[in-house]
Structure formats: structure tokens, C-alpha cells
Design a protein that fits this description.
Layout (H helix, E strand, L loop, with lengths): L2 E5 L4 H10 L7 E5 L5 E5 L7 E5 L6 H17 L4 E6 L18 H11 L4 E5 L14 E4 L6 H6 L4 E5 L5 H11 L3 E8 L7 E7 L6 E9 L3 H12 L4 E9 L5 H7 L4 E5 L13 E4 L2 H10 L3
This protein binds ribose-5-phosphate.
Ribose-5-phosphate binds next to strand 11 and helix 6.
Length: about 300
């Protein structure tokens, strides 16, 4: 076999589903953590002259998962692989895509440089927070739409739907989605407190949403705050129901509880990030993305 596919620990279930689609097995490797939390990686496959994929979602704990990715990449490079491709179903740090306040680090740029520095030749990723960060990489980036996973479901209720942009930054994504299905679009103006993490200062609905099914399109759910606040506003404006559709479910703290108990009627996410059984709740529906990723990888397998 001329291709080896490794996975870090962040989403082994998705990695298994991807290799299944490709009729392969995951390459063997050892990842251990020392008592002081340092990580050590050793690949247990011959990679010389081969095309090697490393699957890893940069989800929470982000830094741990990033280090695993870098260490696997380095081990593969030292094994003299022909080509190394990072498959990042979720690209963490993508939201730190600009310097918001003087003195801040441009984190998404640093992460891009780190990934390149170990010798990856290409990136395959899904639903970047801002696709402009592709420009932070010198190597090619294949960017797959994650929200396309929800397309078929939205088509079933098309006549009643208005697509909602949860903030100005998400406009391009939701606009493209609405246009592709010929659906109306409304916008929520969101102001964040840049001095306090996760704090939203104000929100306002712009557009006609009354008696519609509001489908909010977003890239990621973390605390659930953006979507729950948006849903409260939309219900006040007379929508029939609210569906939140976000590619990445990086649930932290009590996000699962907040979402289940809040005003959103259905929450759609994909499996780019592993959701443990105890964080799955009745309103949540998880859409698989393994075939989307596998079909891109197939194009690179000779
Ligand atoms: C923000 O710009 C992002 O696109 C998401 O809307 C946001 O990060 C979601 O975070 P949370 O669930 O904590 O509101």
C-alpha cells in the first residue's frame, strides 16, 4: 500500500469512519503522555516514499491536539514520506484570524506556520471560521464546506425557511448557503465584549423573519451563547421555530444543557469534533462528514 493514514487522539471515531470509506486501516502509532504532561509520539509503520495523511481535529483541548499533530507530522517527515497531508476536520485557532486589539498575537498565523514548519505539504480542512486564513499558509489548503452537510434537510422544509446570519463575520457563509438554495436571508448584528471572553454585549435582528423557520448557519458552537441569544431574539420577532446548524460542535462547560433547555428547537452539527455520549442531548442531531473528507483524500491517493 502506497498510502498510510494516521490519526491523533482528538476524533478517532471519525478517523475510523474515513479509513473505512477508503477501504483502509489506520496506521499504527504510539502516543504517550509523561507524568509531567509532555507528549511523545512514535509511528509504527514504514512511510518512506509513501503518501501519508494525518487526521486530527484541533478541538478542545486544542493545544494538546495541536502538539500531537505536529509530533506525528515530524515523525512522518523523519520517516521520509513522499507527501504529508494534514486532514483537519476542525481547524482550531481559526477565530483568532486578526489582531482585534493592539498588543494581541495573530494566533491563526502562528498555528499555520507551526503546521508548515514540520513539513506538511498540504491541508484538507472544513468550514474555516474565516477562509482568509488560507493565505497564512504557503502550502495548498483544500477547504470543504461543512454546512453543505445540512443542505438536504433544509431542502425538505425549503418553503418555510429563512436563513439567518448570526453575526457579520458569518455573512459570506450563510449568504452562499441561502443563495445556493434560493432562500431569503436575515442578519443578526452581534457586538462582543473584546475585554471579556465569550461575552456578548448586544444583538439585533435585521430582516423579515415572522412566521418562518429560522435556520441559523454558523461555523462553530462553543458555549452556545451566540445561538441561544439569537434564538431568543428570533422568537421575539415571531419566528415559528429555530434550527441552529453549525459545522463544528466544540461544546465546553454546560453548552449541551444550555442548548437543550434554551429556545432553539433543533441543533444540527457534524461529527468533525467528537461528541461524547454524555454530551449528546435530545435536540441534537449529528450529521456525518466522513465521506466528504474521504472523497477529497481519494483524489490524492494514486
Ligand atoms: C463567532 O464569531 C463564531 O463564528 C461563533 O459564532 C462563536 O464562536 C460561537 O461561540 P459560542 O457558542 O461560545 O457563542
Amino acid at each position: 500500500m502506497d498510502t498510510v493514514i494516521f490519526s491523533g487522539n482528538s476524533n478517532l471515531v471519525l478517523a475510523q469512519n474515513i479509513v473505512k470509506e477508503l477501504g483502509q486501516e489506520l496506521g499504527k502509532l504510539e502516543i504517550i503522555r509523561f507524568a509531567d504532561s509532555e507528549c511523545r509520539v512514535r509511528i509504527e509503520e514504514e512511510v518512506e516514499g509513501k503518501t501519508v495523511f494525518v487526521i486530527q481535529s484541533l478541538s478542545a483541548p486544542v493545544d494538546e491536539h495541536l502538539i500531537e499533530l505536529l509530533f506525528i507530522g515530524d515523525a512522518v517527515k523523519r520517516g521520509e514520506a513522499k507527501k504529508i497531508i494534514a486532514v483537519l476536520p476542525y481547524h482550531g485557532y481559526a477565530r483568532q484570524d486578526r489582531v482585534h486589539r493592539q498588543g494581541e498575537c495573530l494566533s491563526a498565523h502562528v498555528v499555520a506556520k507551526l503546521i508548515e514548519s514540520v513539513g506538511f505539504d498540504k491541508i484538507i480542512t472544513m468550514e474555516l471560521h474565516n477562509e482568509a486564513i488560507e493565505a497564512f499558509f504557503e502550502i495548498p489548503v483544500v477547504h470543504i464546506s461543512g454546512v453543505s452537510a445540512f443542505r438536504q434537510e433544509v431542502e425538505k422544509i425549503k418553503d418555510e425557511v429563512v436563513i439567518i446570519t448570526p453575526d457579520a463575520g458569518a455573512l459570506k457563509r450563510s449568504q452562499a448557503f441561502a443563495e445556493s438554495l434560493d432562500l431569503p436571508l436575515a442578519l443578526i448584528e452581534k457586538k462582543r465584549d473584546l475585554n471579556q471572553a465569550h461575552k456578548i454585549l448586544s444583538m439585533k435582528v435585521v430582516g423579515d423573519v415572522k412566521d418562518k423557520i429560522a435556520v441559523i448557519i454558523d461555523d462553530v458552537i462553543v458555549t452556545g451563547g451566540t445561538l441561544v441569544n439569537a434564538a431568543f431574539m428570533l422568537k421575539e420577532k415571531g419566528v415559528k421555530s429555530v434550527i441552529a446548524a453549525a459545522t463544528h460542535a466544540d461544546f465546553v462547560g454546560g453548552a449541551d444543557k444550555i442548548l437543550q433547555e434554551g429556545p432553539i428547537d433543533k441543533i444540527w452539527v457534524t461529527d468533525t469534533i467528537f461528541t461524547p455520549a454524555e454530551k449528546i442531548f435530545p435536540k441534537l442531531q449529528i450529521f456525518p462528514v466522513s465521506s466528504l473528507l474521504a472523497s477529497q483524500m481519494k483524489k490524492m491517493i494514486k
